[in-house]
Amino acid sequence: MAITLMVIGAISAPGLDTALVWSLRRPDARWWPPRNASFGWQALVIWALSIVPFVAGGLAGLWDNSTLSLSAWGWRAVGLAAMTGACILLAWGIGTLSWAQTMGQGRELITHGPYRWTRNPQYLGDILLAVGFVLWSDSSLALAVAVPLIAALVLFPFTEEPWLAELFGKAYEDYRGRVPRFIGLPSQV
Q1: Quick check: is 187 in a domain?
Q2: Based on the number of CB atoms within 10 Å of its own CB, is 152 exposed (0-12), middle (13-18) or buried (19 or more)?
Q3: Greatest CA span in the chain, whole angstroms?
Q4: Can you give the residue range of the structural domain that contains 134?
Q5: Which of 71, 139, 158, 175 has the smallest CB count inside 10 Å?
Q6: E-only strand ranges, 105-145
Q7: Within a domain: 165
Q8: 38 or 176, which is more confident?
């Protein structure tokens, strides 16, 4: 069962990577972000391909725990702390941005809350969640799913930035100049 879940996660995450690379190379036919205010089938596929690796990798990691042979409790504690921080960052990011904007349907540039410190707190939280889960579960199968998933989470902002620049113009360019993509210190506070 764990292997089956890992395969599902390991197939869906590269599928997500492929759709995002397509979106980068063909912005006129992109899958993400949505091309208009409606939530079309491409966005639905992107969301499914985003959720499936988390669920499949998570379940595989629960069944396959302790196969990475990390020093159990030290790394598990670090993983638990990372997952806790990730959940806080994700809740703060979604609460600040709004659910509609998270789904690519909002039309307001948000620069407060966690967006004051990172342009992508939700992707950063997702990355932290994936890394934390791998450490906590100590699972080689979870790691196999997490690697292509994290690659996708790093790609997401690159597909969104041209769209945001087009949507918000100079306001976004100024924001992008002040606030780091993932982590770092803002150039102006």
Answers
A1: no
A2: buried
A3: 51
A4: 2-178
A5: 71
A6: none
A7: yes
A8: 176
